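User: Can you write out an input/output pair for a complex, sequences first and structure second?

Assistant: Here is one pair. Inputs:
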Amino acid sequence: MTEGYGAISRRDVLKTSAAGAAIAGSLGPGNVAMAQGQADAPPHAAVTLKVNGESTRLELDTRTTLLDALREHVKLTGTKKGCDHGQCGACTVIVNGRRINSCLTLAVMHEGDEVTTIEGLGSPDNLHPMQAAFVEHDGYQCGYCTPGQICSAVAVLEEIRAGVPSHVTADVSKPSPMTTTEMRERMSGNICRCGAYSNIAEAMAQVAGVKA
Amino acid sequence: MKFDTPAGTNPIDRMKVVGQPTTRIDGPLKVGGHAPYAYEHQELPGKPAYGYVVGSAVAKGTIRSMDTSRAERAPGVVAVVTHRNAGKIAKGNFNTAMLLGGPKIQHYHQAIAVVVAETFEQARSAAALIDVDYARDRGAFDLAAAKVDAPDATGSDAPTAVGDFAGAFAAAPVQIDQTYTTPDQSHAMMEPHATIAAWEGDKLTVWSANQMVAWGAGDLARTLQIPPENVRLISPYVGGGFGGKLFLRSDVIMASLGAKAAKRPVKVALPRPFMGNNTTHRPATIQRIRLGATQDGTLTAIGHESWSGDLEGGGPESATQQTKLLYAGANRMTALRLAVLDLPEGNAMRAPGEAPGLMALEMAVDELAEKLGMDPVKLRVINDTQVDPEKPERPFSQRNLVRCLEEGAERFGWARRKAPGQVQEGRWLIGMGVAAAFRNNLNMKSGARVRLSPSGQVTVETDMTDIGTGTYTIMAQTAAEMMGVPLAKVTVKLGDSSFPVSAGSGGQWGANSSTAGLYAACVKLREAIVAKLGFGPGEATFENGQVHVGNRVADIASAAKGGEIVVEDSIEFGDLGKKFQQSTFGAHFVEVAVDRYTGEARVRRMLAVCAAGRILNPTAARSQVIGAMTMGVGGALMEELAVDKRFGFFVNHDLAGYEVPVHADIPHQEVVFLDEADDKVSPMKAKGVGELGLCGVGAAVANAIYNATGVRVRDYPITLDKHLDKLGEVV
Amino acid sequence: MRPFTYERAKSAQDAAVKAATTPGARFIAGGTNLLDLMKLEIETPTHLIDVNGLGMDRIEPIDGGGLRIGALVRNTDLAADARVRKDYGVLTRALVAGASGQLRNKATTAGNLLQRTRCPYFYDVNMPCNKRKPGSGCAAIGGFSRQLGVIGTSDACIATHPSDMAVAMRVLDASVETIRPDGTTRAIPIADFHTLPGQTPHVETALEKGEMIISVALPKPRGGTHIYRKVRDRASYAFALVSVAAVIGKDGKGAVALGGVAPKPWRVEGADALLPNGSKAVADRLFAGAAPREDNAFKLTLAQRTIAAVLAEAKA
């Protein structure tokens, strides 16, 4: 089954799924899902994601990526599909505190996981400091890679604080410094074809409280 | 409004809102993830199905047979459309190849089918079940081989000649005669081409990523052979274009055909690995440049020939364009030659012509400077011209190239530049390079509608697009300036073919033309307000939400008390572009470091100084330029669609194979705009910057690499393999 | 992507049994390479066994010295581990030179070893490829081969192995520890783990049907200066044209392995002994019998020069 069409809220998704419980009952998380109805219908499975703090139960074709689950089923389209192959970073979301490419992971592999998307970081009238810094420094142009850039930027500052080394860390036996050189290297998985990199570095430096 | 005499003083000159570095009014939506791009629109007339496009597996040939039965029987499949059941399809005015191929195949990954299913996953897997049998034809895929008998281009691309080039070149005491090559390049915008199509009866609505709404809507009607009034194209947010979304592409056609067959809305996005060959690209060039000069550096002969290829019926990459206008010189010639190639369709990519043309020309100028023993900044300065060198009776409307070069040299510390191969820091060889930037200013007719509501809100409606350029913001600034209201009192609605036709986003004409069109509409609104209030005659001043005429004053909102005031106008450009050469100018300065062991080149510093008329919003304009500089670094160092000359396709057709710059490639970038206002171009006195920023960057990087290494590479991109064996022995 | 059924494995042996007995079954862990390939139908499993819940995500000391890295340790965690950073710096350096931060957060140790080639012809299902479709031919030979292999290749395949991590593990003499469906375990020296293409380029590792990697063991730290030098066109987020992993002692002796040049991390023990003699001697020995193509012959020069850079850095 697929979710009902329309601008439904995440709460509605929950309701829809609950109503479908009779069908979905045997499809507990992690069970092998066998086709229902049509003999050759593709296998489905149930998964509960905690998206931006709200639990969302979805009944999905096992092939559904986390990215497509967010965009096409939860209707959170802030997370972008730029390449669908892990080559651009537009789909970056934060799962259980870590940034990942949501295009290269299956939704059914995220039972119970906490997913933070751009919509969960802040809202247009209550922006996250990183979102506000992107506006202030014009850290975008077309805006398509921007949600991924921002999710990555937030996570990158955490990674540096947590002492994760990078390719430009001079001495990997020591913590990495909070510099724009470190930020640039760590942000390199987020391509911006408009070329806002120089401004993004300034936005990040401002949030990190360091010199650009 | 007709613009046929230079602009006098007008309300824009106040520059209270226009010209200010306002942050983008669409910024909060974009950073919040709430700006809806083509594939994301939710308010549709029915539950959408998903379309997945199938591309040809051969570059040239014929589909002998096609078996779609397995796909049709696959779970969830609603429809399969191919040339056999699509109905009559024509070619759009702006396309070279058909957007739906079959039985004839014109290029690799030409769309041949769309599979529509209930879900994306079902559509994608069913698409793989279509079996096609092709008769493969021999094709021409090698520009160097096809160059030999490529004829001269015709029409506006025909050869030009002034004076006696051959004689002057032969007699010149200092000569450069070199050949340069630039590769095929891909726009690689981050948002793939995407469309949702929905039919209601015979009316078709498409939500599509498109830079030129009217061109797109027109070609959609033409391609599907339906009346233009039955088509509506909506494109409020475009995730990058760079010329790749100037025209109707296969996503629109396949979504429309799929939706018709499925009898419900259909969503189609082109898969990334499909884009390199299915869509357009910037064609490769082979360029021969001959420069002749006297010992004091005066250019006496300038010759530029360029070869490129395209499908039958396509056009040349006009790489000689800037050479007609950039430098003085009594004897000159240019020629474009066009070979027929069976590679995918070549077409405009950011600064078509000038971008690859300046990559070659500005390297040749650097070579001449070295041969003369002259500073390359000085060589460019002494060969400046204030008139069109081919038609000296035509002056430039405004030309401050020399100031760009000299001010840039000063700011960049150009005087510290040493002879090639002289500066080393550890394993890095350091060099500086310069190049001139030049791109013509184009103007296009542009219209807008303006509404004044009883609450005093000003609403702008035009089919103009914002592809990252900042259109929303500069339109709001223009309306606010004209109507004397704060930015918050302006609402801007863009990208809908039901709005007045605008210039669209292309050729760096968008900002100036579309704001000029809005200026015209605002002039009309001002007149309507004054008339409604019964003020006048006399000069009206609009400020602080009020209109003043003589000693009479009123809130502008009061004029709409009895109902919204709606006006519409457009700007049309007369022959000032013929009387005056209108161009934009700049100078790019680059410092690079080249690893003396591995030959890797990395950019350390970049500066652009631009002279482009009035800058409508320095923040957005600067972003355009830094973005273009970034693309220029890509072109200089890494970007190349690799041609497989046997199978006839671009091999590296995804973002892992086609490398574009990442964060780590780009240092802090400096941009300076000269304080200008060009009254010959429009009432806004502004010109474009989005393409100017790219022009010359590649050559500046290349010249810096030469300055670092002493090794000249004339074949872009300058990857390490091209100079590695000349960087000196290492043990 | 073809439809597949999905299950979460209950134990390592259970996973191995399921993989051996379920037709079309594959393990999935990080998924960053497998899903990429499934979307293009280069990989077409009909059943996925999710092994993420099996633990195997710890890095533990081995009695007598060395470290045991769980198969599911994410690349980020392996690179950031204090013991790895201190004693196996080449491994940290190789890991952080690979992919992007997002991918490293997901990609696992075992999955990294099992990455498939990035040959563009392997990635385009319209093209002949003996690795993707045995017997169909190799479009890369005579085609665009700039990224491809110069040694260890065959007339059936010139693909390279894309991993950075594996190159460091090769220089560290790691061994790959596995479990088989019958419950037995074994340790495969990394030198023997990846196989050369010969006439069977679709066979890429020594793993048997159902056999699953459970850990990778690193021997005792060998001291010395640890260097990983990756050469690429752009500064980050790109596969290596050539990479050099080296551990070099104060006496100039040590070990060196190369990435980007061969179907497996390329190390020739005889070349290690030549390190004190300089980069030319090492490169000549490493590339004896090389079969470069027109597009990638530069890799021989580049490899020698990169080794020279590494030797200079070790000396500094």
